[in-house]
Amino acid sequence: PFNEDVVPQAAEDPLFGLMAAYKADSFDRKVDLGIGAYRDNNAKPWVLPVVKKADNILRDDPDLNHEYLPIAGLPEFTKASQKLILGADSPAIAENRVISLQTISGTGAVHLGGLFLSKFYSKTNPNATIYFSNPTWANHNQIFTNVHLPIDTYPYFDAKTRGLNFDGMISALEGAPEKSIVLLHACAHNPTGVDPTQDQWKKIAEVMRKKSQFPFFDCAYQGFASGDLNKDAWAVRYFVEQGFELLIAQSYAKNFGLYGERAGCFHYVGPARNGSETAKRVASQLAILQRSEISNPPAYGARIASLCLNDVSLFAEWEANLRTMSGRIIDMRKALRGKLEELKTPGTWNHITEQIGMFSFTGLSEAQVAKLRSDAHIYMTKNGRVSMAGLNTNNVNYVAEAINKVVK
Ligand code: PLP
């Protein structure tokens, strides 16, 4: 039944393909600016010291076992996750309007949200389309397509200014049908590194309120954008404050460096009126979806995150670790821009320091990206996105000089 017409050969995932090509390259000065994972100044994966500490506490716990977690995951983890994204004093939490399920990291949370919307939102809003930014994290496209939600995009990146195309975004939302679903990156937009300002978020909320549109926040980088967990949650909290009913996908891959442990959380925030009653019903259906998809989530990463989130001193240490990561990335932005300007590389490079989070959308063309790879063994996605975490004091000048060569 699986002949070529039925199951054609699919293209390799571009990001994981890039990773494999980098690994296979034997050049000693090769540079990996592809994958969105933090690296230390020696280009090595970094286990956060606070994670190591939590790991040791767990390993020493004689009562630790490998039993199943509940369907919705580790309760102390999901509770703490609500507080982290919504704020400990969030009225939505106090009013029991928030329900949360532990998921297979951020991807699992986006998927669970997509599945829920496809099954229930579509009932009263048939053909409701989910709009995401152009460009967005490549997986959004396939996750929502797989659950049969119609997809469309709103303009986001302005290639000329290398900043936000705010007018384009607003007029697309104004032009989108009422009750459309709008996917928003909570902070540190992937792949562009460009976020709306607080005033721009207010305007986005105003338009979405007018059009009764439904927000779905994807939050994969809390603490990575500014180094401040509260600041990075501002947009989500503002929408909740404005009374929106909404969904949140939360990942701990980047901010805890727990990539492979798949620790994440999905939240539904009910409306200000009758919110707790709605949340209870929503929770019951989400439990069924979760049970049929993964039965129950993996325990270890959530236990580590939970220890850090629920202990005052570990939490403070985590915040310091986050500042180490975001601070090093900011330093690399400054260094790359500085060197490109010093070399008088044609074009403007202020966007490198103006963009935030893990990524920078450099504006390099596909041909330039290919040349960087063949001539200098520097790997990045073909859209010119650079993972800033791949830069360090040993390679930033080498990278700047190589960019300078391909641009000139
Ligand atoms: N959403 C965005 C925008 C991302 O960039 C990522 C990871 O790169 C994710 C979600 C999900 O990541 P994970 O499943 O590793 O938590």
UniProtKB/TrEMBL annotation:
Catalytic EC class: transferase
EC numbers, comma separated: 2.6.1.1
Gene Ontology MF terms: L-aspartate:2-oxoglutarate aminotransferase activity; pyridoxal phosphate binding
InterPro entries: Aminotransferase_I/II_large, Asp_trans, NHTrfase_class1_PyrdxlP-BS, PyrdxlP-dep_Trfase, PyrdxlP-dep_Trfase_major, PyrdxlP-dep_Trfase_small
CDD domains reported in the protein's UniProt record: AAT_like
Keyword line: Aminotransferase, Pyridoxal phosphate, Transferase
Entry annotated with the keyword Cytoplasm: no
Occurrences of domain Aminotransferase class I/classII large (ranges): 30-403
Biological process, per Gene Ontology: aspartate biosynthetic process
Pfam annotation, one family: Aminotran_1_2
Gene3D superfamilies: Aspartate Aminotransferase, domain 1, Type I PLP-dependent aspartate aminotransferase-like (Major domain)
Cofactor: pyridoxal 5'-phosphate
Miscellaneous comment: In eukaryotes there are cytoplasmic, mitochondrial and chloroplastic isozymes.
PANTHER family the record matches: ASPARTATE AMINOTRANSFERASE, GLUTAMATE OXALOACETATE TRANSAMINASE 1, ISOFORM B
Subunit structure: Homodimer.
Homology family: Belongs to the class-I pyridoxal-phosphate-dependent aminotransferase family.
Descriptive protein name: Aspartate aminotransferase
